[in-house]
């Protein structure tokens, strides 16, 4: 069974599938081809093969430049950062720079409790006038 690719990137020359559906770097379909033909095409155009969809028959690969791969990785990382994980609670606490000692200790105890409960804690410090 082929290894699961969790990271988006070039698969190099290790392609577990015999027949591939290949898309060129402009997004146009080149149809189904044998992996040897896909590797020749990759070498001729100095591109890299990237697995897009593994759970279809035949699996879909795209020819991409290193720059395109890098940009796609950045987009995916940005999306992942933007979407909050399901089940993760985020708590936010705001401090003033002129906070009294007792208030500070109480709020830090509250933060410690939230961290023990595996909550994500966001702390904001406002400057006193």
UniProtKB/TrEMBL annotation:
Residues 11-78 form the Translation initiation factor 3 N-terminal domain. One of its GO terms (cellular component) is mitochondrion. InterPro entries: T_IF-3_C_sf (IPR036788), T_IF-3_N_sf (IPR036787), Translation_initiation_fac_3 (IPR001288), Translation_initiation_fac_3_N (IPR019814). Coiled coil: none annotated. GO terms for molecular function: ribosome binding; translation initiation factor activity. Gene3D superfamilies: Translation initiation factor 3 (IF-3), C-terminal domain, Translation initiation factor 3 (IF-3), N-terminal domain. Keywords: Initiation factor, Protein biosynthesis. It holds the Pfam family IF3_N. GO terms for biological process: mitochondrial translational initiation; ribosome disassembly. Transmembrane segments: none annotated. PANTHER family: TRANSLATION INITIATION FACTOR IF-3, TRANSLATION INITIATION FACTOR IF-3, MITOCHONDRIAL. Belongs to the IF-3 family. This is IF3M factor.
């Amino acid at each position: 069974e082929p290894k699961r690719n969790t990271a988006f990137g070039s698969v190099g020359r290790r392609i577990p599938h015999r027949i591939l559906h290949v898309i060129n770097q402009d997004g146009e379909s080149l149809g189904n081809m044998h992996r040897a033909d896909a590797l020749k095409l990759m070498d001729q155009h100095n591109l890299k093969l990237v697995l897009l969809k593994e759970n279809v028959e035949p699996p879909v690969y795209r020819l991409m430049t290193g720059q395109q791969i890098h940009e796609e990785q950045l987009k995916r990382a940005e999306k992942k950062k933007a979407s909050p994980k399901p089940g993760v609670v985020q708590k936010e606490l705001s401090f003033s720079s002129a906070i009294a000692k007792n208030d500070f200790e109480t709020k830090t105890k509250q933060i410690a409790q939230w961290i023990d409960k595996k909550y994500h804690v966001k702390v904001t410090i406002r400057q006193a006038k």
